[in-house]
Amino acid sequence: MPLEGEIVRLREERASDLHFLQALRNDLDTQAWSKALPPDYTLEMYQKRFQGREFSYDRTDGRFIIELKETEEVAGTILYSNLVSRWEATIGIMVAKPFWGKGVAQEAQEILLRFLFEELGLRVVRLWTHSGNPHAIQLAERAGFQIALRQREAIFKAGQLYDNIVMDLLRPEYYARHPELTDRLPGFQVVEQATGSE
C-alpha cells in the first residue's frame, strides 16, 4: 500500500522503474557528491540490486518511488536506511530535474517523515548533504532539520571543495511543527550535565 500526499505517492520499486533509476543515478546534477561517481551505473547493476532484495520482517531500510498521483509519472526516489528500531534512520532523496521546484521533493519528504515518526516511532531522523547543495539544505530546513555536524572541505564535486553536512530532526521538534498530530510515545527525560560547582 503506497504512502500518499496531496500531489505525490510513495510506492514500491518495480522492475519497470529500473531504467529511470539508472538515469537518475548517472545524472551529475542529481548525484549527491563524488563518492557516488563515476556515472557508470548500468541497468544490470540495478537489476541485481532489485532482484537481490530479500523478504524480511526485520527491515533496516525502505526504498520508494516518488510518483505523481494525477499522471502516475515517476518523479524520483526516496529512501530510509540504517534503521535502528524505535530510534533512528537516515533518509535520502533524488528528484529528476523536470520536477525540481514543483513541491515534489518537499511533499515526498514530509510523507516519509510522518511514516518514520508516526509508524516506526523513531526518535531522530538524519540526512547527509553538502554545502554546494543549498536546495537540499533549504528543503531539510523547511521540515525542521538542523545542521548537527559540518566536516569542512570533505566533499569534492565539479572541481570544488565543499563541506560535508549532517542534519537531523528530533522527535519533539517534528511534533512541535505538526500540532495536528499527537505524539503517543512516552518521551525521554533529558539529563543535564552536572557542573561540579555545588
- Beta strand %: 25-35%
Q: N-to-C SSE series?
A: EEHHEEEHEHEEH
Using only C-alpha atoms, the radius of gyration works out to 18 Å
* Biggest sheet strand line-up: 1-2-3-4-5-6-8-7
What is the count of β-strands?
8
Give the overall silhouette. globular
Chain-averaged pLDDT:
92
Low-pLDDT runs: none
Can you say what the CATH homologous superfamily is? Gcn5-related N-acetyltransferase (GNAT)
Helix content: 25-40%
CATH architecture verdict? 3-Layer(aba) Sandwich
The CATH topology annotation reads as Aminopeptidase
- The helix/strand class is alpha+beta
Rounded to the nearest angstrom, the distance between the terminal CA atoms is 57 Å
Q: What is the number of independent domains? A: 1
- CATH class reads Alpha Beta
Sheet of most strands:
8 strands, mixed
Task: Explain what you see.
With 198 residues, the chain is of the alpha+beta class. The protein has a single domain, classed as Gcn5-related N-acetyltransferase (GNAT) (Aminopeptidase, 3-Layer(aba) Sandwich). The protein has an eight-stranded mixed beta sheet, with helices on both faces. Strand 4 and strand 5 form a beta hairpin. Helix 1 crosses helix 2.
